[in-house]
Design a protein that fits this description.
CATH architecture of the largest domain: 3-Layer(aba) Sandwich
Helix content: 25-40%
Strand content: 5-15%
Shape: globular
Order of helices and strands: EHHEHEHEHHEHEEHEHEHEHEHEHHH
Strand order of the largest sheet: 2-1-3-4-5-6
Number of strands: 12
Radius of gyration: 21 Å
Number of helices: 15
Structural class: alpha/beta
Amino acid sequence: MKILMNFSDYTHTPERMEQNTYGGLGYYRIVKPSEQIKGHDVKLVGKEIKDFGTTLEEQWDNIFKEYDAYWTNYFCDDVAGAMIIYQARKHGKKLILDIDDNYFDIPESNLLYERFQSGKRERAMMTTILSFADIITTSTFPLKERLDEHFQLVQKLEKKIVVIPNLNDIKDWDFEPIEKDPKKIVIGYSGSNSHHDDLALVLPAVHKIMQKYDNVYFEMIGILDKKNAPVVFKNWDMKLLDRVAMVGATPTFKEYPEWLSQRAWDIGIAPLVDTKFTRCKSSIKWLEYSMFKIPTCASRVYPYFIDVGGRKTIEDGKTGLLCRKDDWFKNLERLVIDKDLRIKLGQNAYEHVKENWQYKDSSITKVIGAMLETK
C-alpha cells in the first residue's frame, strides 16, 4: 500500500512555512506514526502537498491516483474537504484523519471556544469532514469515547476510530541538559495559549511559594505574552515579578527538545483543570520533562494518573507528584526544599519513560498495520 502522510501544521508559523517543517501537532500525530509503519510505502510531506496539481481537482485527482491512502490532521476547509472526499471516493482510496483534542467540550474561557462552540460553522465543517473519513485516529481513549458518542448520537454513524497514543522517542531528546544554578530553584511550565485556565489553577500556589522562598523563580514557555500578562498577574506581589520570565515558544518542533534541555528547571509543572475537555488530553508534558530528568508536579486528572494501554503514567511519589486542587502548594514546597526528592523523581521518571513509553517498543506498528488492512 502507498500512503501519503501530510503534517498540515506547516502553515502555522512563517518559520515552518519557510523550512517546510512541523510543530508539536505534526510531530506527535503524523511524523512519529509515519515512522512506525512497516511493510508499506510511506511518503511524508508538508507543503509539497500543493505540488500535485495547479487546481484542487488536479491536485487531489493526482494524489488518489498515485496513493492508496491519505492521512493528515483534521481540518475545516469545506472546499478542500469536498474535493478530497470526492476524489477519494472516485478512486476507491482511503481517507484517514487525525484529531487530538476534544473540540465538542471546549470551555468558554478557551481561545478556541468562539470557533468551535455548538452551532459554529467550523465545528459543523470539522464534524462533517470527519464523518466521511474511512478511519479516524486519535490520541487517547477518552477522546475516542467522546468521538464515538458524537457520531452515534448526533450523526447516527458507527465510525472506525483508532487510538494511537502519544509516546516518546528518546533519540529525539538526546541533548545534554544545562547545569542548574545551585542558588536558584526554577519552576517551569511549557504550554500553549489555550491553557490559561490551567495556569490560573496553579498560579496562587506558585505565588505563595515565591513569597515564602526568595530563591524560587518561575519560567513559562509559550503560554503568555506581554499583552495579557498584566491581567494574569494582577493579584501578585509586584516585587515577585522580577523572578518571573515569559519565554516565547520555538517556532518549529525540531528546535524544541534541545531548547528545553537548556532550561535550568528544577521542577516542571503540568496543571490541568478537571473538565471533559482536559480529560481527553495526553501526558506529553510529563514525557518531555522526564527526558531531562525534570521532576513533574501534575494535576491528578486523566492524562497523568490512569494507565494507558498497560503503561503506567505518573506514580505519585515515585515518578512525579500528583496534585488535587488544594495540593499544589504542599507538593511544590516538598520539591523546593528537598533536592534529593527532585533528583529521585526526575531519575525515576526518565528511566520509566525510557523503558515503557518508547515508540520502538510499543504495539503501535501492529495497531497501524491492522488499521490499514481494514476494508
